[in-house]
Amino acid sequence: MPLFLDILIIVLPVFLVIGLGFGLKMAHLIDASFLYQLNRLVYFLALPALLFHEIARADFSASFNGLLLAGMLAATLLTFFLAYGFAAWRGYPPEACGSFCQGSFRGNIAYIGLAIVFNAYGGGGLASAGILLGFLVPFYNFFGIVALLLPHRQRGRQFGPWFWIRQVGGNPLIISSFAGILWSLLGMPLPKVLERSFDIVSGMALPLALLSIGGSFSLQRLRGDISKSLIAAAVKLVWMPLITAGILLVLGIRGRELAIGVIFAGTPTATVAYIMAQQMRGDAELSGSIIMLSTLLSLITYTVALVLLEGLGL
User: Fold this and answer.
1) Phi and psi at residue 172, to the nearest 5°
2) At 24, which CATH number?
3) Calpha distance 151→157 (Å, rounded)
4) For residue range 109-137, what is the model confidence (pLDDT) as tens digits?
5) Domain range holding 245?
6) Which of 14, 192, 204, 271 is at 20 to 30 A from 237, Cα to Cα?
7) Which 8-state DSSP code applies to residue 28?
């Protein structure tokens, strides 16, 4: 029981803040216009500041684990091919195939993943997770686009190299992560004034991100095919953490780094999957259903995953 309570103390506060965001929306204290601006603030300022700050002041050589990154990439690729193959085998329409595949592997590592890691392991864990995120986000962006466009490959729409450069290189989370990595490698201290400024700005990143997720909850997004949504959510929340844990254990990764890998792998489907599905001829309703179901169910799967990791001494 004490172990279970310890895990709840890590996981439950994150979801209570998400619930607070939903409650504020229901009470009409925040609205869609506010949430749009809040998302922009978090995405373009608060989270980049948090990532840069934590990574820049960390020892990159001590915080970066190439085997952890390789294992995460391998698990993501396996999940991508499994989900796409399953959707093709079941004969899903191109729109549903793309959204199903993306929803099965693209996790909300920036908002929920970082929050869980920070609650569990503090600033040290956050620095390691931030460096990992810097390498994973471009990978997720690229394969998220591939998942949505690949089913339409016979319909003649082409995307040149500048499209891919903008999608990957223009992401503020990627830019801030690599800026922090460069600063860390150079071994330069942050001036005290900047240090304290970053402390203030980055401190609002995770609370505002979680409020934004809760405020964006909408039962209307559950209009997509529930059976497809449940399968995709199961792949994202059960299969992906399991295959990630298996690969990382084979690679000899244990302790905090194993937990960070499992936490990232077990994140619910990213909210951006819904936006991308709208813009790239995916099934937006299906994407919305996967996001809602995976986010709600992740409270249970996270608790179980962390109890198992701690209970087995991994």
Assistant:
1) -65, -30
2) 1.20.1530.20
3) 11
4) 988 998 899 888 887 888 888 888 888 88
5) 2-311
6) 204
7) T
Query: DSSP per residue over 184-237, as a string?
Result: HHHTPPPPHHHHHHHHHHHTTHHHHHHHHHHHT--GGGGGS-HHHHHHHHHIII
Give me the residue label for tokens 């986010």.
295
Contact 237, 103 (CB under 8 A): no
Tokens (6 digits) for 234: 């199961």
| Structural domain count, the chain | 1
Determine the residue type at 189: P
Q: How far apart are the first and last CA of the chain?
A: 19
Tell me the one-letter amino acid at 115: A
Picking from 136, 79, 102, the residue whose alpha carbon sits closest to that of residue 264 is: 136
By CB neighbour count within 10 A (0-12 exposed, 13-18 middle, 19+ buried), where does 70 fall? middle
Residue 19 vs residues 6, 109, 244, 272: alpha-carbon distances, Å: 20, 18, 28, 19
| Mean pLDDT, rounded, for 148-160 | 65
